[in-house]
Write a structure and sequence with these properties.
The chain is α+β, with helices and mostly antiparallel strands. It has 4 helices and 11 strands. The strands form 3 sheets. The chain has a 7-stranded antiparallel beta sheet with strand order 1-9-6-5-4-3-2. Strands 7-8 form a two-stranded antiparallel sheet. Strands 10-11 form a two-stranded antiparallel sheet. Strand 5 (about 100-105) and strand 6 form a beta hairpin. Helix 1 (about 15-25) packs across helix 4.
Length: about 260
């Protein structure tokens, strides 16, 4: 099963400020669950004039209690009590053309719910008449448009079916394509079993969608905090605000207290 969620909004700040704030958004008062952020790859393409970045965020996170109630006991093992999860983030920034694309995805509990969020940040343009009688696009530097598209996929309950398929003779060749067994040995799933699994998947995806809507609102509020600091005091105030937020959230020693 697959669900989609889309939203659009604008920041009342120019694109260069918004793209910089994106990379400086943690910590902030609306993201107290973010423990750390690490850049694992970054490079600038001199030909396309684009910046490529891959980051890993460690967040304090657990599956919602409403989801846990739907799952068999012990299915998560020790991960159920860890309270932490990793988020992989990839981004491309083109300052010259005025756009940025980002993609984030969860690395934990993907068999239960995989969430992939894609965002585009664009410097808006307006069409104006040119002297030659044609039209051209003129950048509007005061705002930045943001479009978000989130995909939710739950594969919970499909693991047993895949195991049954392997036992029945469904194998993969060296090219990772699938070779099917004859029809008379294909595993069969009961109507009620299939219906129950689909219903559970839809419920998990719906819960994930509700949480994403709430998270997007907090994310926008957090970005506006960083952008406000940038407008009033520049990068110095942003960094000072990050220091104060980190200390307020975790104390002087940060999120990793000595034992």
């Amino acid at each position: 099963m697959v669900k989609f969620y889309e939203s659009s909004f604008s920041y009342d700040y120019p694109f260069p400020a918004v793209s910089l704030a994106y990379f400086l958004r943690y910590p902030n008062p609306y993201a107290k669950h973010v423990l750390s952020t690490d850049v694992i790859d970054r490079h600038f393409d001199s030909v396309s004039q684009r910046l490529y970045t891959t980051r890993l965020h460690l967040k304090r996170s657990k599956l919602p209690p409403t989801v846990l109630k739907l799952l068999p006991k012990g299915i998560l093992g020790s991960n159920n009590d860890s309270g932490q999860s990793y988020i992989l983030e990839k981004s491309i920034v083109d300052v010259k053309e005025g756009w940025m694309t980002t993609e984030t995805r969860n690395l934990e509990w993907t068999g239960i719910l995989s969430v992939v969020e894609k965002q585009s940040y664009i410097r808006p343009t307006r069409e104006i008449a040119s002297d030659g009688g044609g039209t051209s696009n003129e950048p509007q530097n005061g705002t930045t448009d943001v479009k978000t598209s989130t995909t939710f996929v739950s594969r919970f309950g499909q693991g047993g079916h895949r195991t049954a398929r392997r036992k029945a003779g469904v194998v993969s060749n060296n090219n990772d394509s699938v070779v099917e067994a004859p029809d008379d040995v294909q595993p069969k799933r009961g109507f009620l079993s299939s219906r129950s699994t689909s219903s559970l998947q839809r419920t998990i995806e719906a819960i994930g969608m509700r949480r994403t809507r709430e998270a997007l609102l907090k994310s926008k509020d957090g970005m506006n905090v960083v952008l406000g600091r940038m407008r009033s005091g520049g990068l110095v105030e942003v960094l000072e605000g990050m220091r104060k937020d980190r200390e307020a959230m975790y104390g002087p020693e940060g999120p990793w207290k000595r034992t």
